[in-house]
Amino acid sequence: MALSGPDFSLPEFLEAISDTVRPVSAAPIVVHAKELEELPAGQVHNPSRLAVAGKLPATTFEIFRQIIPPGLSTDMQRHHHETVHFVISGDGHTEVEDETAHWSTGDFIYTPPWTWHRHYNDSANQPVEFLTIENSRLLALFGVGRRQSAGLATVDEARARFEGDLA
Hints:
The chain is an alpha+beta fold. It has helices at about 10-15, 40-45, 135-140, 155-160, and strands at about 35-40, 50, 60-70, 75-80, 85-90, 90-95, 100-105, 110, 115-120, 130-135, 145-150. A hairpin with a 2-residue loop joins strand 6 and strand 7 (about 100-105). The longest helix is centred in the first third of the chain and has 8 residues, at about 10-15. The two termini are about 30 Å apart. About 20% of the residues are buried. The mean pLDDT is about 90.
């Protein structure tokens, strides 16, 4: 059974683990928008606003609402976890290492582990809003979560600043 890639089959995977996974009762099952916990600006390292659904009982992933103001961007960063952004509203582009991709409302953006990346809001008038999901809690359980920020740098500047720091 393939665990990833084109030969991966969700039904086969679920069948293989069905005897070992037990249902769990966890609460709350709903975190309302007004209950999201906005991270202090000093912890974000860029002009975007991050609000975490921290009260959700998920043990392996973190979920955020992220807003990038008009014309601005996130910081150039890399981290050990994978991230998927769903674009709730807005238009922009993302740099992941040496690749640039444009996106708009309804698109998904994937950020692989330990890759330099930065998200840009291409609008001068409208904010970008993401639903951000990352497996950072899973890595934290194993004590291997790590994040680096190069601020509002380019990919090349980030590489130069952290040259030789591979882990």
